[in-house]
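Work Package 3 (structural annotation) set out to generate three-dimensional models for the target panel prioritized at the project kickoff. During this period the team completed the workflow that converts sequence records into C-alpha cells, so that structures can be stored uniformly alongside our sequence database. As a representative example, we reproduce one entry of 70 residues exactly as it appears in the project archive.
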Amino acid sequence: VRLPAECEARAGEPSIDKLYLLTDTAEEWFASLGYERTEREHVPARVRSSIEFTTACSDTAVAMKRRLGS
C-alpha cells in the first residue's frame, strides 16, 4: 500500500489528474485501492509509448487508472 500511496503523493501536481498502471497479477488489489480497469486504447498515447507498455509488461497485462483529486 505504501508504494502506490507514495506514487500518488508525488503525482500531486495540478496537471496530473490520472495515474495509469499495468498489472498481470494484482488487478483485484489495485481495484481495492481505487484503480479501475480501462482499455489500453483509452490510455493516453504518451503513456502507451512508455517502456512499460511497449516492452516491459506483457500484452495481456491489464491497464488500470485512478483519478486523483476531486
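The mean pLDDT is 88.
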